[in-house]
Amino acid sequence: MVFVIISAVSLFVLILAIGISFLRRRLESQRKALGSALESDAQFRALTKAVPGMIWTACSDGTVDFANEQLEKYSGINVEHDLDQWPRLLHPDDVAITLSKWKHSVRTGEAHEIEYRLRRADGVYRWFLVRANPIRNDRGEITKWFGTCTDIEEQKHSVEILEEQVRERTLELADANARLQEEMWEKDAARTALDHQNERMVQELTERSHRATLLAKMGELLQSCISKDEVFSAALGFAPKIFPVTRGAVALLNSARSLAEVIGSWTDCALPAPVFEATSCWALRTGHPHLVVAGDPTAPCAHAAGLKNTYLCIPILAQGQAIGIIHFQATDQVPTLADSELSFKTTFAGQLGLSVANIGLREALRTQSIRDALTGLYNRRYLQEMLEREIRRAVRADMPLGVLMLDLDHFKKFNDTYGHEAGDTVLRETASFLTKNVRAEDIVCRFGGEEFVVILPTATMEAAKARAERLRSKLRELTVLHQGQSLGAITVSIGVAAVPQHGTSPKDLIEAADAALYCAKRDGRDRVVVAASPSDLEASTAELGSAELPAHIETPPV
Question: How crowded is the C-beta side of 496, counted as CA atoms within 13 Å?
């Protein structure tokens, strides 16, 4: 029992010894930490003495617990005992806002910054900029506030001086501005009037540009027209777009150039008479534009008798010759025809005249290219085009087509006996005879020299032969006179070919008709011969074997 008690006492003493040792080390550690903290605090206080500005600290709850001696030198307050009285140093007007903002920073942990006035020891207030930032531990908790207080009185004074200068300058500028405002109002009024004028000019220029573009497009289109009807149809379509505020009409002269007829109009333009004499228009008389102002009785156009609005007539000239007029009328909404519009109108008329002239030239060139100069008949080139067209039409419609090839007999005799002029007369008279003695749909061509070709649409081979016989017999009755002297009887040899018996190409038909013509001339002339069919030629060739082909399919001598 005694042993147990002794053991328990020994254990207790051991535990007590361990505890005392632990407490001793803890106290020693705290003493060292406190010494270190006191040493750091002493160093911090020593440093703040060397700083010329005011430095202060506060606890986490916002209670100011330290300020360096600069505050004491400035305000006379004892920083060791009366530091909690620092709000008394504030200017009365700054107390409420300063304390309110400081409490807000302490509550939210936001950095603190404010400007306020502090009373100096002699009772004078000066402006200071105060800043404070929170110091946090490892857990983010605020353990301290560190703040500075900087004198900004001089800066404030400079700002006040600058603000006063700004106020004075502002008053001066206000006076100057008032004077300038009056000038600006006058200039604005002038500028507004100028802007309106410029807008009108820009609008007019834009419209003119648009109309010029339309006029150019019309000119391009007219150059592609292939007939007068297309030209004037296109022009009447463009006219209301190019001249939207005027009415107008186009009148063309007849072939005798005695009457003018209105062929079209735009914007409900109406002339008193749709047909009028050419002499009733001054523009057609003079060849120049003629303007008649409303109410002016000087020289009105008779064809416009009764019109009350201003009107303008412009001649349409093609190769220097008037072919009609363009008549422009003013409206009640726009009662005048501006001089600036004259160039558009004359250009419009000029393009019409140029297009009509071009079409006339193209038609003349076309005629020259497809007509024989001596006889006026279609030439060999046109024969090729028309024969191809008629063959395609006959094959497509399953219709027959006849071709006659004619050659004047002993034509060289006319030239040798009476001269080449007599030979030309024979050719012209023969051409006239053929033209008068065929149907309207038949086509007569000069093939070359004294040879002619007649295309007979829808004619069978029998019908083509019958027409050839009729032409041959009637031609014998033709009397040709040269210098008052008869040239004697004219006879002709004719070869006949037809679709489909002799082929379906121009080459096949011409060769077949030419071979038949050769046979007619070989057999005595003044006769009609139908070309042999391809099957007859094959049979003849088989009978001859290696012998030469029949003479009638050889190329005839020149």
Answer: 20
CA distance 352 to 347: 9
Q: How many Å apart are CA 281 and CA 258, to the nearest integer?
A: 11
Tokens of 474: 């009637």
Sheet strands (E) in 73-205: 112-119, 125-136, 142-151
Please write the tens of the pLDDT for every residue from 365-402.
777 778 888 998 999 989 999 999 999 999 999 999 99
Q: In residues, how long is the chain?
A: 558
Residue 142 near residue 134 (C-beta atoms within 8 A): yes
Task: Please say whether the beta carbons of 316 and 353 come within 8 A.
Answer: yes
Q: Are 263 and 251 in contact (CB under 8 A)?
A: yes
C-alpha triplet 366, 372, 378: angle, nearest 5°: 70
pLDDT per residue over 220-275, tens digit each? 888 888 888 888 888 889 889 988 888 999 999 998 889 999 989 998 887 888 89
pLDDT greater than 50 at residue 546: no
Alpha helices (runs of H) in 325-444, residue ranges in sequence order: 342-370, 380-397, 411-418, 420-436
For 152-163, give one letter per residue: b (16+ CB within 10 A) or e.
eeeebeeeeeee
Between CA 534 and CA 537 the distance in angstroms is: 5
Whether the predicted model's global pTM rises above the 0.85 cut = no
Q: How far is CA 490 from CA 61, 392, 421, 547, in A?
A: 145, 35, 16, 37
Domains by residue range for the chain, with CATH: 48-151 (3.30.450.20), 225-367 (3.30.450.40), 375-553 (3.30.70.270)
Q: Is the pLDDT of residue 550 over 50?
A: no
- Tokens 């100057």, residue? 176
What is the chain's Cα-based Rg? 61
> For residues 444 and 427, is the Cβ–Cβ distance under 8 A?
no
